Amino acid sequence: MSDFPVEAVVLDWAGTTIDHGSRAPVEVFREVFRREGVAVTEEEARAPMGLAKRNHIAAVLEMPRVAAEWEAVKGTPHASADVDRMYASFLPLQKEILGRHVELVPGVVEAIAECRRRGLRIGSSTGYTRELMDVVEPLAAAAGYAPDVVVCADEVPQGRPAPDMIERNAELLGLASTRGVLKVDDTIVGIEAGRRAGCPTVGVCRTGNALGLSLEEVSALPVDELADRLAAIHRAFREAGADFVVDDLTELPVVLDALAARTAAASAD
Question: Each residue of 109-159: pLDDT tens digit?
């Protein structure tokens, strides 16, 4: 049992611990639509990020502009069979490019080491399937990141924003309930999943899907522009109900300190 108010940290993968800017999924989603003759913008491809990948494709197809372009190109509205076909092409394409996007986000190794020093278990959840994570996990481990538990969207009844992956993490980590989990995610649906699971949540801004930039692209932004964009993302996470909002995982120890102080204050009352 940890001395801290949480017993485990459950982190997302792309945009939180690997793949600065969560670029791999966007690249593949746009290519899958391009192969259908329908162009989607990066913003459209990113909007449903955090959902299970089949649901993500379906969500993009439901966007009014995309739906209208689909019908103009295909001559008929999209159907479930179209989603199935595109998802089938998504998986091998994603698997093909994953190896180029498994670099760890700077500070992850140190943040995880600090969590372990405090006695916390390390879980994780992802919209990637088990087949895709079989590519990602060994590469991440070789780079220094190997959580105790990895739960994929296709291993539970529902992906985010449902709490199923968090609940499965808690079960595999031997926790009495999800209230012992701190959920860390770079998507709004990930924060919603944490809220539904009844656990404290942390939104990650600089490295994640909302900003959507590589480390090099972030470094190239004018300071004022970066500050303004990050401030807007912070507000969005707060409005979504995140208990804490950070730029990246280097701030995770500060969150743990805040939780410990909050618990100590509550015990003293």
Answer: 999 999 999 999 999 999 999 999 999 999 999 999 999 999 999 999 999
Phi, psi of 189 (to 5 degrees): -65, -30
37: region left, alpha or beta (phi > 0 left; psi from -120 to 50 alpha): left
Q: Which of 12, 19, 186, 247 is catalytic?
A: 12
Record the pTM.
Answer: 0.89
CATH of domain 8-22+102-268: 3.40.50.1000
In the chain, where are the structural domains located? Answer: 8-22+102-268, 24-100
Rounded distance between C-alpha atoms, residue 65 and residue 207, angstroms: 28
pLDDT at 1 over 70: no
Closest C-alpha to 52, from 130, 142, 147: 130
The pLDDT value given to residue 269? 65
Q: Considering only CA atoms, which of 130, 119, 124, 155 is closest in space to residue 249?
A: 124
For residues 75 and 69, what is the distance between their CA atoms, to the nearest angstrom? 10
Q: Are 8 and 175 in contact (CB under 8 A)?
A: yes
Q: Which fold has domain 24-100?
A: DNA polymerase; domain 1 (1.10.150)
**Where are the strands (E) in the chain, listed by range?**
8-11, 121-126, 151-152, 181-185, 201-204, 244-246
Is residue 268 scored above 90 in pLDDT?
no
Give me the catalytic one of 19, 53, 243, 248.
53
d(CA 166, CA 199): 9
| Residue 53 among the catalytic residues | yes
Taking the CB of residue 215, how many other CB atoms lie within 10 A of it?
Answer: 14
- Residues paired with 51 in a beta bridge: 49
